[in-house]
From TrEMBL:
The gene is apaG. Gene3D superfamilies: ApaG domain. This is Protein ApaG. Residues 8-132 form the ApaG domain. PANTHER family: OS05G0170800 PROTEIN (PTHR47191). SUPFAM superfamilies: ApaG-like. InterPro entries: ApaG-like (IPR050718), ApaG_domain (IPR007474), ApaG_sf (IPR036767), Uncharacterised_ApaG (IPR023065). It comes from Qipengyuania vulgaris.
């Protein structure tokens, strides 16, 4: 089955694609815990080699609370992408509300060491409605 990337953004020839799925088996609505998994594919359509150095996430829950998450690389890696390469990874996001959103940016370095930001598209986190 082919993954459906619902959200994407391109910056300077680097495309970030996101597919997000709610995981009911990892969620506990009765304890106000909901969990999503997201698959990200980063594609280099530029003409130079780049390296992903850091990430910045803005995570907003359904109550409007905003968390900023910064870190090196993605899931412990700082991948180098040659022209035409792509890099995939999967991570997750817990929230205390049944809906919210995520967005942010990666900082890449060009071959000459110059940093530049690549936008991560906004994507909603929404648990399906349940009869209660």
């Amino acid at each position: 089955m082919k993954e459906l990337f619902q959200h994407n953004a391109m910056t300077d020839g680097i495309t970030v694609r996101v597919a997000v799925n709610f995981l009911p088996e990892q969620s506990q609505p009765e304890a106000e815990k909901w969990f999503w998994v997201y698959h990200i594919r980063i594609e280099n359509a530029s003409h130079e080699r780049v390296q992903l150095m850091t990430r910045h996430w803005r995570i907003t829950d359904g109550a409007g609370m905003v968390a900023h998450v910064d870190g090196d690389g993605v899931v412990g890696e700082q991948p180098v992408l040659k022209p035409g390469d792509s890099h995939d990874y999967v991570s997750g996001c817990p929230l205390d509300t049944p809906f919210g959103s995520m967005e942010g940016f990666y900082t890449f370095h060009r071959e000459d060491g110059e940093p530049f930001e690549v936008r991560i598209p906004f994507f909603p986190l929404a648990a399906p409605a349940t009869a209660g």
